[in-house]
Write a structure and sequence with these properties.
The chain is of the alpha+beta class. The protein is built from twelve helices and ten strands.
């Protein structure tokens, strides 16, 4: 619960309605007394009576309560409150929003006035995109530095995945999002592939989705695996500089399934190899094997192979998309399509023999 001092409430009202605003009273709805302010918090509205230029007004202040229905985090609740603020008065008979704001760490109430769009400011990193190294390896061959970088990726993932959390509801949410989110599997099927796509027609997508339902229920038994994750660890989100690396664009939540991170980079070693060799082979097979083996050795987590298949489907849908990767040879896409279909048919991912999933 949050304690709201009269001075802070009045200061907020002045920022929103002008300097001639005066706070008259605040408390529980139906019990407008001073004690009500002490209990203002998540799910408990606060009735405020004030005047603007001598004219009396009333408003209800609310903070959304966090819960397991997709509202665990501050940013979840912020998006819903912004939706209500921008759309409520467009609906006939709906209560009219009077303000939107946030509380800072000191408890000060900060209004968001005339909100149009958010932005973020990040530090500037030195280095080059890791995908440029993969392009170079395809042209010029592998160096020991490249192999060590793949190992270091795996060791870094092992370190961040060691941070665990016991929250079955959050793990289940991450699996729901993987399969049903606009940014993930169902969203990609609907938006990243043209209607009537000849290489992967509707019937194959329907079968794929049916298989994923079985996997959703299987993964409900793995909630003990909830770990800190990056969420989008691929070569365009890694900057390399002088033998070290930094990462960009953490996505899809702070907590999730480690197998998602592990396969995201691994599938890109496979992609570059498919483009060069038509299968996993040569220098990219070396990187792929060093990366996976280093991770498995560092974590001892062989169970990750039992949960990885739906994450492989997601990443195959991304890198096989004709919208996002228009220059792939058709055989590259076909190999990825076979991989994502066949990997769902087995209970555990055979990472060491990935080529067999792509055979005709």
């Amino acid at each position: 619960m949050i304690t709201m001092e009269k001075g802070r409430i009045e200061a907020y009202l002045k920022q929103v309605f002008g300097d001639d605003t005066r706070l008259l009273a605040a408390g529980d709805i139906g019990n407008l007394d001073e004690q009500g302010m002490k209990g203002f918090g998540y799910g408990k509205p606060l009735l405020v009576r004030f005047s603007v230029g001598g004219e009396g007004r009333e408003a209800v202040f609310s903070i959304m309560k966090g819960d397991k229905y997709g509202h665990q985090f501050l940013w979840d609740r912020a998006s819903i409150l912004m939706f209500q603020y921008f759309t409520s008065d467009r609906l006939e008979k709906h209560v009219r929003p009077l303000g939107l704001g946030y509380l800072d760490e000191s408890g000060k109430m900060i209004p968001l006035n005339d909100l149009s769009e958010f932005f973020i400011v990040n530090e500037k990193l030195e280095g080059h995109d890791y995908f440029l190294d993969l392009d170079r390896i395809a042209r010029e061959g592998l160096t020991e530095t490249d192999v060590e970088m793949a190992r270091e990726f795996a060791r870094w993932l092992a370190r961040i995945h060691a941070d665990k959390q016991a929250d079955p509801d959050l793990y289940w949410r991450r699996i729901r999002n993987l399969i049903g989110s606009d940014e993930c599997i169902i969203g990609l099927i609907d938006e990243a592939y043209p209607e009537g796509y000849e290489e992967f027609p509707r019937e194959r997508f329907e079968k794929l989705e049916r298989s994923l339902v079985r996997w959703r229920w299987k993964l409900k038994g793995y909630s003990h695996r909830l770990s800190a994750v990056h969420g989008d660890f691929h070569p365009w989100n890694v900057l390399v500089d002088d033998g070290d690396f930094r990462v960009l664009d953490r996505s899809r939540g702070e907590w999730g399934e480690p197998g998602g991170d592990l396969c995201t980079m691994g599938i890109n070693y496979l992609l570059w190899s498919l483009r060069k060799h038509g299968r996993l082979a040569g220098d990219f097979e070396i990187l792929y094997r060093e990366y996976f083996q280093t991770y498995l050795d560092a974590t001892g987590d062989s169970e990750v192979l039992d949960v990885m298949a739906p994450f492989i489907v997601f990443r195959c849908l991304v890198i096989a998309s004709p919208q996002w990767y228009p220059d792939h040879p058709v055989e590259v896409r076909r190999g990825l399509f076979r991989l994502m279909e066949n990997v769902l048919e087995e209970d555990s991912f055979d990472w060491a023999d990935v080529n067999r999933y792509m055979e005709v």
